[in-house]
Amino acid sequence: MLFWMVMMILVLVYDEMLSPGDGVLGIDFSGVLNQQMKGLYRCTYVDGGVKKNMAVTQFQAVDARRCFPYWDEPALKALPIHSLQATFKITIDMPSELTALSNMPITDEKLNENIKTVYFEESPIMSTYLVAVVVGVFDHIEETTAYGTKVRVYCPVGKCDKGKFALDVAVKALDIFTR
């Protein structure tokens, strides 16, 4: 196996010819929590004079590759090959006092001492740059639309009054577009 860091290209070389057909490629990987506002990065803010951190994603347009491996060559996405279309099933391990958010609802949470593992529902097929993850300390406010959809706005602790307008607009917009 060869990897050219500058070009971010991975070439797989096998000792023998692979048989035609479907297969599974498993990749172990690790990413870095950076401070460049690209990929998965650390965001710092001050709350009551105390410096706090949260982890946030910014994957547009090709910065998801800073967090995990995937096929992002535009020519590949144009092919009618289902296996190159991606769904995402996010699992996050984090300190138990934190909240994890992603594109999909939480399906399960498990606590092991002071580490919480949060499992999210598998996403529909979507572009990699749309994957979102946020981990931090949050409060939230919520309302339900006329059609029964729960809408939440997450805010820094003690700042939910700042999210009320966004919540009101989101609920009204969903009601209008659901009709």
UniProtKB/TrEMBL annotation:
PANTHER family: AMINOPEPTIDASE (PTHR11533:SF274), PROTEASE M1 ZINC METALLOPROTEASE (PTHR11533). GO terms for cellular component: cytoplasm; extracellular space; membrane. This is Aminopeptidase m1. Residues 1-23 form the signal peptide. Coiled coil: none annotated. The gene is APM1_5. Residues 10-130 form the Aminopeptidase N-like N-terminal domain. Keywords: Aminopeptidase, Hydrolase, Protease, Signal. GO terms for molecular function: metalloaminopeptidase activity; peptide binding; zinc ion binding. GO terms for biological process: peptide catabolic process; proteolysis. The keyword Signal applies. It comes from Quercus suber (Cork oak). The lineage of its organism: Eukaryota, Viridiplantae, Streptophyta, Embryophyta, Tracheophyta. InterPro entries: Aminopeptidase_N-like_N, Aminopeptidase_N-like_N_sf, Peptidase_M1_aminopeptidases.
